[in-house]
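Exam prep: given the inputs below (a chain plus pyridoxal-5'-phosphate), describe the expected output before reading on.
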Amino acid sequence: MIKWPYLPQDLGLEIVKSEGAYLYTKEGFKILDAAGGAIVNNIGYGREEVADAIKKTALNNTYVLPPFLTPEREELLDELRNHWLPPHLTRIHLSSGGSEANESAIKMAIQYQASRGEPKKNIILTRSLSYHGTTLNMTGISGHAARKRGLENYVPVAKTIETPYPLRCPLGSFHPDAKDYYLKNLKEVISHHGAENIAALLMEPVNGSSGGAIYPPEGYWKEAQDILISNDILLIADEVMTGFGRTGYKFSCEDYEIKPDIMIAGKGMSSGYAAISGTYSTDKIAESIMNAGYLVMFHTFAALPLSCTASSAVLKILRRENLCEKVNPLGKKLKQKLIAELGHHPLVAEIRGKGLLIGVEIVKDKDKLLSFDENERITDQILSKGLEEGVLLYPGGTGEYRDIICLGPPYIIGNDEIDLIVSVLKKTLNYIQAKYA
Ligand code: PLP
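Solution:
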């Protein structure tokens, strides 16, 4: 009998304990979690302060209907508004995970357009490489080929713009006109579908699992948002992976100096201590939906008091210990060491990213940027070898560009962990190189 998971996985492990930045297997093996789980854990595992707060809340308010206010909810709302959210995003809708929060964001965008007399504006543009979640709608509209397999005939077909990908720009790698090329594509897609039919563009400010820390050319997003505004199209930023300090900013949109109309966060919002996510919008959007008499329905387990408490406790720790301020210096050290040790490696096409979201793109032929054959399952091999050597890495990439390793450790790592990540990654890449030489 197969005990767990539903479908057996190559990387099956039994973890009996996690503490700080480390996982411990049943056999007593210690693994550095360079992936923060699924790029979730920012403050480290096993914090007593968070556990105590959750226990207190479980006894005080076990379950309360999501729309009712409770002290636990109020504490989180104050924490988010006073210390984290961009000031223009005043309205907060809570759910349990990133997919649910993205679904809510799309409902809000479509309902907003309908409420202002634009019911035809109901296309949600997404990007050719992107990941927004695992519900059927998110599976369909995300640009993550591997996660659609067997569902292509059922899920909605994504209407996409090209994801700016400087390394693989069709004009040439890091081409000086890359920004204009991708902006032209945005304009063409808008004109193809008709601005009068488009509600919003949903984007990840930095690609996570669909690409591994891909950044657009400098200045792209500022101009892209101007194009959206002039076409009366909303901007929805999915900061599920990037939110709460991961890339060195509270939210990555700050980096581009853009103001999304709706923003989504999850993962780091609770560092994995409880299931919680948020959809944040402007007053204008919420008021318009309300005035039309529409509902933004809640999920039964949305805003559970104990999830709110876990999130407040985690966010307070981030602030008290100045952990977000440590992300940039740690990330710089890690990236510099990676570049020094692996930048010239024949299988490494690019080492990219900011803060503690770093991507390493692996290719068979560096000059031609040719990927390995899909059947070789290079990323899986790297992940397995990494685990054998005591480091959990995260898989990025999909479709044609599938061999990308993501690093997203907790913000509490030090020099020893940086050294271990780099040396293990080097060993795994040398192993692959030797195997396919
Ligand atoms: N959006 C982004 C950018 C993500 O990285 C993820 C998960 O990896 C999701 C949405 C989906 O979140 P969840 O798995 O919590 O539903």
